[in-house]
């Protein structure tokens, strides 16, 4: 009888445990995927990484890897770091070969490709002009430089003055060329962060540096990643358009944040390498979607340089998905290539 009572109590306790805790291990709830993320500072701006995972065990490891990766890219490609690889290349005497890392050669080769494709609207040798107009590491200015000074600097500008020997990783500047990668290095950094996640088997992510982005896959609810295109109006933050993306990189170039004014004339930070002067057309911003962010970053700059008509025609001819915001009175007109429609929300 005592044994029967003990057995009855044991069964009652087991039933109570099943009722309270929802069953035995075979009935436990499957962990749900959620968005994990990190953020920080790099390249004079901010960065963020978001990815979908059922666990947060990788967060700290990814944070450390991303930090090392971005620090290495900055040390290779920044003109603001005196002993960076790019700064040392810029100090190398004319016609003297300089051996660069595989990463820097990759970015320089992509820059040269985009320069040829855009017939010089994108040109990384525009650095002396960027500095002269007060938008480089030499600091801001309040007065436009003299025409004679700009014309003298223009003689140093031209992507054709830079020769690359990719197999040997050698770079030769034919003269006193100053290479500035600010219009492509952030995009390259975004691509590197995306590849970091993919190397870990992560297939759903959104990574960003200073507003340049690359996305893949979906959010936990299977919805695409949604991104905002900003209204290009100085002094305010407003959304012009929402786009959805499951694969690709997005970069925007605009003239509405970084500029100076003199005697009522606004001088944009976007310098046209072909004229050696800031752009003066009605295009306020352009957003480009391409497979890699390095390409999107460079092409957005090139289209911004070209302006509303030349840029749009180039995008159509070369099947570049692009969205244009053009100044019109007190507002803006929108225009996009046919391929961009697939990303727009009805």
From TrEMBL:
The keyword Cell inner membrane applies. It comes from Marinobacterium alkalitolerans. The keyword Magnesium applies. This is FAD:protein FMN transferase. It is a lipid-anchor. It comes from the Bacteria. It catalyses: L-threonyl-[protein] + FAD = FMN-L-threonyl-[protein] + AMP + H(+). GO terms for molecular function: transferase activity. Its main location: membrane. Signal peptide: none annotated. Belongs to the ApbE family. Its cofactor is Mg(2+). Keywords: Cell inner membrane, Cell membrane, FAD, Flavoprotein, Lipoprotein, Magnesium, Membrane, Metal-binding, Transferase. Its EC number is 2.7.1.180.
């Amino acid at each position: 009888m005592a044994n029967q009572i003990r057995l009855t109590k044991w069964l009652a306790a087991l039933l109570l445990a099943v009722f309270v805790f929802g069953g035995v291990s075979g009935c436990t709830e499957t962990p749900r995927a959620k968005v994990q993320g990190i953020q920080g500072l790099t390249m004079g701006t901010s960065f963020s990484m978001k990815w979908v995972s059922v666990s947060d065990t990788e967060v700290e490891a990814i944070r450390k890897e991303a930090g090392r990766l971005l620090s290495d890219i900055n040390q290779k490609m920044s003109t603001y770091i005196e002993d960076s690889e790019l700064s040392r290349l810029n100090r190398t005497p004319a016609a003297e070969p300089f051996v660069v890392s595989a990463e820097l050669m990759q970015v320089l080769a992509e820059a040269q490709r985009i320069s040829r494709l855009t017939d010089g609207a994108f040109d990384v040798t525009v650095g002396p002009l960027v500095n002269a107009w007060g938008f480089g590491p030499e600091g801001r200015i309040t007065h436009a430089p003299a025409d004679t000074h700009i014309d003298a600097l223009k003689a140093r500008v031209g992507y054709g003055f830079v020769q690359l020997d990719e197999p040997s990783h050698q770079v030769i500047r034919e003269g006193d060329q100053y290479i500035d990668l600010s219009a492509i290095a952030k995009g390259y950094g975004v691509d590197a962060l995306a590849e970091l996640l993919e190397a870990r088997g992560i297939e759903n992510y959104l990574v960003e540096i200073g507003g340049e982005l690359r996305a893949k896959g979906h959010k936990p609810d299977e919805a695409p990643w949604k991104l905002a295109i900003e209204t290009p109006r100085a002094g305010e933050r407003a959304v012009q358009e929402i786009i959805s993306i499951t694969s690709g990189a997005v970069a925007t170039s605009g003239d509405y944040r970084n500029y100076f004014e003199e005697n009522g004339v606004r001088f944009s930070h976007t310098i046209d390498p072909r004229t050696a002067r800031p752009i003066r057309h009605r295009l306020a911003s352009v957003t480009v979607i391409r497979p890699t962010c390095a390409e999107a970053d460079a092409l957005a700059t090139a289209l911004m340089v070209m302006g509303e008509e030349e840029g749009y025609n180039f995008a159509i001819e070369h099947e570049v998905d692009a969205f244009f915001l053009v100044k019109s009175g007190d507002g803006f007109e929108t225009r996009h290539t046919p391929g961009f429609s697939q990303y727009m929300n009805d």
